[in-house]
Design goal:
By secondary structure, the protein is mainly α. The protein contains 22 helices and no strands. The protein is 72% helix and 0% strand. The two termini are 34 Å apart.
C-alpha cells in the first residue's frame, strides 16, 4: 500500500469519527456530521478495522517526530536572530532589509510548496525515502550558507534549499504519530508538535551565542552537523503504519474551491500566516529597535518559541473538549487582540518577555488545529486533498509577510507600529473567517439533526440526509453567528 504522510493529519485528533460502533445508523449519522457535502453517504458494513497500539513503539515515533520538528521548524524559528544580525551588521553588502526578509519567507514557503512532491515521492518510495531526502537538502543548505558571500547565495541556501529539506522532513513525519495512537492521539500529537517550539527556544539562544563567539560561518556549520545527525537518526528509527491502516493519498480536488466553507478555511490560514511570520521573525529585531541588546533580542525570540512549545499540547487538548472550531477561532482572535493592546505598548524588557511568552502560546494555533478543523469542514475523505491545497495556498503569505512588515517600518518613533497593527488585524481577519465558518458548521449540525428526527426510526434514507453548502438557508447561517455550541 502506498505511503501517505498526510493521511496521518486526516486522523489527527478527530477521535469522534473513528467509528467503532457496528450500527449502520450510528455510523451514518457520524459520517454526515463530518462530511455533509458529500454527494452520497453510503451505509457501511461492519468490517474489521486496524486498532492502533496506543503506545509501545509509538512513543519512540513521538520522540523522533519531536526531534525532527525541533531541527526543522524549530531551527527555522531562530531565523529572527539571524535577521537581527544581518540588519545590524550589514553582512552582505548591497542587500536590503527586504532581501533578508525574503530569505526567511522562502524557507517556509518552499517547505509548503514542495509538500505535494514530497507526498508523491513518499507514496512511491516510502516514508523513509522522503525523510532522507529532507535530511540531505537541509544539511546542504546549512553548510552551503556558511560559505555564502552574496545575498543570492543566501537565497539559495538558507532560503530555498533549507525550505525544501524542511518540507520533505515535515511531510514524511507529520502523519506518523497519529497512526500509532487512538485514545492518546491528541496528547501524543501535541507532544510531537511541541518540538518546533522547544527547538526554536534552544536554537534562538544557541544561534546568537555561536554567532557572537565563533562567527556566522561556523555557526551555520555547527547547526548543519547537528541537524544532520539528529534528523538522520530519527529517519532511521521512525516507522509508519501505512500498511496496517491502508493509507491512501488523494490528489488535488479542484471542486473544493466551489465550497464556501473551504474558502473560509483557506482564509483563516492565509490571514493567520500573514500575522504569524511577522511575529516569528520580527520580535528579536523589534527588541533591538527599543534599545535592547542582541542577547536580549535572542531571549525574546526564544521565549516566543517556549510559549509555542508549552501552548500547543494544551491547545490540542482543549480543542477536543471545547470544540475544534471554537478553540481555533477564539485563540486566533485572542492573538490578534494582544498584538494590538500589549505588543504596541511593550517598550521595556519585562513587558516584552511577558508578551513573547503569552503570544507564543496562541500564535501557532493554525498549525496545531488545521488537521482536526479541516476534518470538521470537509470530512476525512477529502481532508488529504484539502490539506495539499492549503499548503500551496499558504506559499504566498509565508513568502511576503515579513517583507511587508519590514516595508511598513517607520523611520522614527516606534518604527514597528504599522507592522504591529498589521499583525493584529491579520489575526482578527483570520478569526472572522473562523466565525463565519463556525456559523456554517452549526447550520450543518442543525440541519442533520432535523433530518434525523424527520426520518423514520430504523429506516434512514441516506439520500435524504445529503446537505450541501448551497442548501444552507441564510436565516440559519445568520443564527449560527451567535448560537452557542460545541463545534
Amino acid at each position: 500500500m502506498a505511503d501517505s504522510p498526510h493521511y496521518g493529519i486526516s486522523t489527527l485528533v478527530n477521535q469522534d469519527v473513528i467509528i467503532q460502533d457496528n450500527s449502520s445508523v450510528s455510523t451514518l449519522e457520524k459520517t454526515i456530521a463530518e462530511d455533509p457535502t458529500s454527494e452520497q453517504v453510503p451505509v457501511p458494513t461492519a468490517e474489521p478495522s486496524d486498532v492502533p497500539p496506543d503506545g509501545g513503539y509509538g512513543w519512540v515515533c513521538v520522540a523522533c517526530t519531536f526531534a525532527i520538528n525541533a531541527h526543522t521548524w524549530g531551527l527555522n524559528s531562530s531565523y529572527g536572530v539571524f535577521l537581527a544580525y544581518y540588519l545590524a551588521a550589514d553582512t552582505f553588502p548591497g542587500a536590503t532589509a527586504i532581501d533578508y526578509a525574503f530569505v526567511g519567507g522562502l524557507s517556509i514557503s518552499q517547505a509548503l510548496l514542495v509538500s505535494p512532491l514530497a507526498t508523491y515521492l513518499g507514496r512511491l518510495y516510502g516514508t523513509r525515502c522522503a525523510l532522507l531526502i529532507g535530511v540531505f537538502f537541509e544539511t546542504v543548505a546549512l553548510i552551503g550558507a556558511s560559505f555564502a558571500t552574496e545575498i543570492w547565495q543566501l537565497f539559495l541556501s538558507q532560503g530555498v534549499a533549507f525550505g525544501i529539506g524542511m518540507g520533505f522532513l515535515f511531510v514524511g513525519s507529520v502523519g506518523i504519530v497519529p497512526q500509532w495512537f487512538s485514545k492518546k492521539r491528541s496528547l501524543a500529537n501535541g507532544f510531537a508538535a511541541a518540538g518546533s517550539g522547544i527547538g526554536g527556544l534552544v536554537y534562538s539562544l544557541a544561534s546568537n551565542a555561536m554567532i557572537e563567539s565563533i562567527g556566522l560561518a561556523w555557526a551555520f556549520r555547527v547547526l548543519g552537523v547537528l541537524a544532520f545527525v539528529v534528523n538522520f537518526v530519527c529517519a532511521i528509527l521512525v516507522r509508519d503504519r501505512n500498511k496496517q491502516i491502508g493509507a491512501a493519498q488523494l490528489a488535488f480536488d479542484h471542486r473544493l474551491f466551489k465550497r464556501a466553507e473551504f474558502l473560509l478555511l483557506l482564509g483563516w490560514g492565509f490571514f493567520s500566516m500573514l500575522g504569524y511570520i511577522v511575529l516569528l521573525f520580527s520580535l528579536p529585531n523589534y527588541a533591538l529597535s527599543i534599545g535592547l541588546t542582541a542577547q536580549q533580542g535572542s531571549i525574546i525570540g526564544a521565549l516566543l518559541n517556549l510559549g509555542q512549545g508549552l501552548g500547543r499540547p494544551v491547545v490540542g487538548y482543549f480543542s477536543d473538549s471545547a470544540g475544534r472550531i471554537n478553540i481555533a477561532g477564539f485563540l486566533t482572535f485572542f492573538c490578534g487582540l494582544i498584538c494590538l493592546v500589549i505588543w504596541i505598548f511593550a517598550k521595556t524588557y519585562g513587558v516584552l518577555i511577558f508578551f513573547s511568552l503569552l503570544v507564543g502560546t496562541v500564535a501557532g494555533t493554525f498549525w496545531c488545529t488545521i488537521g482536526p478543523v479541516g476534518a470538521e469542514v470537509v470530512g476525512l475523505k477529502e481532508l488529504p486533498s484539502a490539506l495539499s491545497i492549503t499548503w500551496v495556498v499558504l506559499v504566498l503569505p509565508t513568502t511576503f509577510s515579513e517583507a511587508i512588515a519590514l516595508e511598513l517600518r517607520r523611520v522614527t518613533g516606534n518604527i514597528y507600529l504599522h507592522a504591529q497593527v498589521f499583525t493584529g488585524l491579520m489575526y482578527i481577519g483570520a478569526a472572522l473567517c473562523m466565525w463565519f465558518l463556525r456559523a456554517w458548521k452549526i447550520g450543518q449540525q442543525q440541519k442533520a439533526a432535523m433530518k434525523k428526527v424527520e426520518a423514520p426510526s430504523g429506516n434512514i434514507d441516506s439520500t435524504n440526509l445529503v446537505a450541501t453548502s448551497s442548501q444552507v438557508e441564510q436565516p440559519r447561517l445568520v443564527k449560527g453567528l451567535y448560537t452557542l455550541g460545541r463545534v
